[in-house]
Write a structure and sequence with these properties.
Two copies of one chain form a homodimer. Chain A is α/β, with parallel strands linked by helices. Chain A is built from 13 helices and twelve strands. In chain A, helix 2 packs antiparallel against helix 10 and helix 4 runs parallel beside helix 5.
Chain lengths: 362, 362
Amino acid sequence: MKGNFERPNIRAMKGYVPGEQPSDQSVIKLNTNENPYPPSPTVFQSLAEFDAATLRKYPSPSALAFREAAARHHGVNAEEIIATRGGDELLRLVLTTFVDPGEKVAVASPAYSLYPVLTAIQDGQLEEIELNDEWLPDERFAEKANEQGCKVAFIVNPHAPSGTLISQSFIKTIATTFNGLLVIDEAYVDFVSDATHDLTHFAVEAPNVLLLRTLSKGYGLAGLRFGYGIGCKNIIHPMITKTRDSYNLDAISQVLAAAAITDQAYAAGTWAKINTERKNLSDTLKTIGFEVLPSQGNFVLATVPTGSLTAEQLFEGLKASGVLIRFFNEPRLQDKLRITIGTPEENQRLITSLRTLLEKEG
Amino acid sequence: MKGNFERPNIRAMKGYVPGEQPSDQSVIKLNTNENPYPPSPTVFQSLAEFDAATLRKYPSPSALAFREAAARHHGVNAEEIIATRGGDELLRLVLTTFVDPGEKVAVASPAYSLYPVLTAIQDGQLEEIELNDEWLPDERFAEKANEQGCKVAFIVNPHAPSGTLISQSFIKTIATTFNGLLVIDEAYVDFVSDATHDLTHFAVEAPNVLLLRTLSKGYGLAGLRFGYGIGCKNIIHPMITKTRDSYNLDAISQVLAAAAITDQAYAAGTWAKINTERKNLSDTLKTIGFEVLPSQGNFVLATVPTGSLTAEQLFEGLKASGVLIRFFNEPRLQDKLRITIGTPEENQRLITSLRTLLEKEG
């Protein structure tokens, strides 16, 4: 076949399928865990002040000003932070830097469907360690990963797609027991209600822990593609100096990301509103027959009432009524819907549409 | 050592060292082949009109609007174009997608120092095929790459750091002879004076040719990190659907890049000015004793006069006088300086400083 030069592992794999991004702006979009609120006013101001003439020059290769701002916020050193094009780039860099082809990668699953994709690209072997009935990691997660000789393990906390929060003490036990590099994907950590949940200092002091953070969710900047990692220098340094694309972040996003992370008060205000709505939406879903896992993310995983429409039918019905949510046709998820927390008005629209669909059926 | 999980190939390698980006804005910066002119007015306008509120949503995963704009410009199909975070991301994707660890990669060298770095990250084997005395590829380049069993070959055209242009007929001969995928890095092609030099249609029709383009040089957008590849669908498709990070380009850069590539008249105006200055600077350098290779890029490679200061001494002397150029401490380049074409005023400052240094010596 013309132009077929793919490596065997690439030819055999399927790519990641992102959530739908409809062009119709009237659609209620509760399918990709975006923040329903815009970014901080300081982001608008930084954008307005950005001089396009400066774009003719290369940007800071390692996004130093952002890393310094993030380091100030977390009380760590800039060399313990790597800035990346969304959290996705950090996940890729972990595999590129630390996992040889053929080596094993543990994932507490079901989880973010990008992990298997990135592992396949690196020609690594995925070891899926099933979450328990409460959607938390197996109590022997670290031991099982060690028995399989896993080089890297991914844990999502709060977990996606369940929203369940793993306690700090259990995370620390996993980290100290696991022989490889433990990556804790904290994409949703900003929405954790417990203000004492903070693993940043543990991460920089531990020899084998990398935290993933992103501005996509908590800071209303999914369109900016900006994330970062926090860990000890020996984990961060090779990714900054060797495996990262030489100028991985453009000049505009560096400035806007620094503005966003510096305005913690604004971001925290959106988290509080979302967390209030998370409670309201969960309660309402329960009153109409759904089971809802206790979530600490900006989404809930809801099990549809039995004897009613299937999850897939509800997903399709909502879509037809202009409300997008997420249905995963995967083990343990076939009877569930993942719903992003929107504004009160959006959540109301969702509930109204759900009620209509269920009543029609009843 | 704490946190030392690097793969052996990563531990053994050295990272890419980008050209200096001084914070002192008064420095004359002729060291990283940036365009001395700002981007198109349409880029300024698009930036001013961009609504930061839209950043809360994910961007187009594959930068479709940009790809359509680029396809219109080149008269090809959008599915024959991949948009990437600078040309660097495309180079990485080529290795990730098409080169298995241990497989061989041919480079016409000396060339862009990123190729060996990316090959080392992928744990590939670099086959350096020496450029001839005119800084053009060996006439048996394709045969030699075939004899070594190379899966991918990189050619830079116009070549960097020499600026020399390989003829279209020789490129086509190499492509049809080579058994693997031929990547033609056309980062500097916008500065070619010959308007008939255009390999885009050859590339999409050939089974094994990928062109690399970037907005960094020709469009004055190094800070935006935006490039693209052109090739047949079977080469482009796996990179778009499998190996690319799922949202590799942020929303702002997608809009600005589409604006830039649509305003060809403005960009071509900057190319004409730079090409005029390329001739002027080359002539002047020759009058003060330098040999200058015929360049079709936005830079020249100049051999310093013998019996004078060394290239490294001139580099250092210029730097002390506030003019940054590039010196490569590598085989064949020790007696040479690579100088980016600046504005007439910047080039004059360079010449004045060079004369002063050479006269002091004399």
